User: Fold this.
Amino acid sequence: MSHLGDEKIPNNVHLAEDRKLQRALEQWQPNFLRWWMEMGPEGFQRRDVYLRTAVGVDADGWAHFDYVKMPDYRWGIFLSDPVADRRIGFGDSMGQPVWQDVPGEHRTTLRRLIVTQGDTEPASVEQQRRLGHSCPSLYDLRNLFQVNVEEGRHLWAMVYLLHRFFGRDGREEAEDLLRRRSGDQDRPRILGAFNEPVEDWLSFYMFTMFTDRDGKYQLLALAESGFDPLSRTTRFMLTEEAHHMFVGETGIQRVVQRTAELMEQSPDGDARAAGGVDLPTIQKYLNLWYSLSLDLFGSEISTNAAAFFGAGLKGRAKEEKFGDHVALQGTYPMEIFEGGAFRREAVALRSAMNEVLRDGYVEDCQRGVDRWNKVLADAGIDFRLALPSRRFHRHQGIFGGHHFDPEGRPLSGEEWERGKDAWLPSAADRAHVKNLQSRAVYEPGEMANWIAPPPRGIDARPLDFVYVRTEAG
Ligand SMILES: [Fe+2]
Ligand SMILES: [Fe+2]
Assistant:
């Protein structure tokens, strides 16, 4: 187990014993820092932030909280401990020992999987970089920065794999991960949702609730990989990812709670007029980020997904809970939309792996929505938030290129145009939310009007703890 030491790059992968790799990563490090200063959180790089730093993968290594200036954060390379005699748990090579190196025949595919995952990490930091100027509290500001530095560490995790196992191609990919930019016309990030702007805190909470949760499911599937270093690094990333989803789910919950309070206090129950986010607007933001995140799972029927599974590269989330790990016999009852009509088709199970992963994701999202609705029910409010149909607002797969309303009813192009402002944030909604959330709250313990305080602070600190020293010290 490695601990916080003097190494330039904290790690538990014996980096010092591989001088060539160490040198290559030490050359990448200043480029990473340049990217961080250019594209990381805007305006707070010289401030002390009360951050949790991973200094090892055991429980002790985790519990390290202290004030850190973000550029001094100890971005490290941490793999979960190896599992003794680990075997490939699915696909054609089921039961064989896992690979400690990249099998030649899977090299290109694995590199693509790692680059695609790696690209999302800096992308989200870029998307969120201006939010510090409009934070609802120091508690939230600190959580934003915690998420940001950890996404930076996730980039390190993927870059380690690229450098260690993919030679020159890997090093070039690692440079490209610092060159693409979220939302850029000419060199955008690889996946759609990671090019969408995140310019207000409602979007940030939705992003961490729904888009980071896609990340959780992708990581769970990669944690099953027969390529053991990928499995071990993603297993550790999952422990960090849990906090990101906590930020999202509880963030929305606090918005919903505050909205309920404002509805009760205002004579006509109008939360918007009372300076809150009204429930229909919350629903629209939910519709947007949930549907964008569904797209990240890829096509419902996918030969790529089948190949990943067959090769033992990417499994299902928690593969062990499934009965048949070879999945050559089974079928998946898929809903197909063709010629304006729906039908069911039994699709070969391996070709349906994206949809199987999406099923787990949808269930997981629903649990969060249920908790939000409990807040509304407890406040005596009839309105309920809901996940839209999986067909709604899709750009990929069976439903991409068609129009559906949130209940999943097919629409003509004109019907969609007429209805879309009622289902997705309109320009006016975006302007309203952005304006409502434009003023930053930097006083310790204070909270913006549109959000309720959290029930407790971070690391057992009080709510009025100075989570970020916003004054230059
Ligand atoms: Fe991440
Ligand atoms: Fe994340």
